[in-house]
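Q: Could you fold this chain for me?
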Amino acid sequence: MIRIGIVDDRAIDLEKIHSIVEQVDGTEIVFSVTSAEEAYRQVKQETIDLLIADIEMPELSGYELADLIHTHALDIDVIFVTANSVYAVHAFELNVHDYIMKPYRKDRLVQSLERYIQKTRSTEMKGRLFIKQKSEIHILPKKEIIFIERTGRSSTIYTKGKTVQTYQTLGDLEGELRERDFIRSHRSFIINIHYVTNFSLYAKNSYTVSFDGTDEKAMITKDQLDYIQNYYF
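A: Sure. Below is the predicted structure, expressed as structure tokens.
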């Protein structure tokens, strides 16, 4: 299911996008708002895969919103739906999924969404971690990995449904997890920032990390916490 946010300051255009999207199988509308500021607040609170945005809006433009998403390395793709072509070149510098000019036909947006869904499905097939465990190999979807802990000579991978132990080092695993979702938070931990719910002071230069999906906790250094705050939030 593709989770989608929509923002357009013109109510009639917002309603048109909303009506089209809700008819496309495999999509879920998480929010539908009329200001980029509200969309940004929602983006920080909710998990979405795709943002459909107008560009020319008061205060914060859709382009500036997409730039914030890009700058903070949020894993969100963007479709611009706009009446102005002047931003097209800059938009593709942000690697947006599509740039649709108003007025547009319903099938133009539908085709763009269907193409995005197909692209996402093909990407997800590659987004798996192969974990060697004696005579077995576990295949874990990367998006389900909450965090990884190194203790002694083994690494424990905590996912949404189970834990898996391996003799692969954090260095080996970090090399496989090049996605921007994963951070080496501490010499003994790799965390998925999308599952983080809380940081609690543990010592002068370290914090414990709590997650959605498990009661187990990880550690993060102050330097890495500062990095996350600056570049992700």
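A (continued): The first strand starts at residue 2 and ends at 7.
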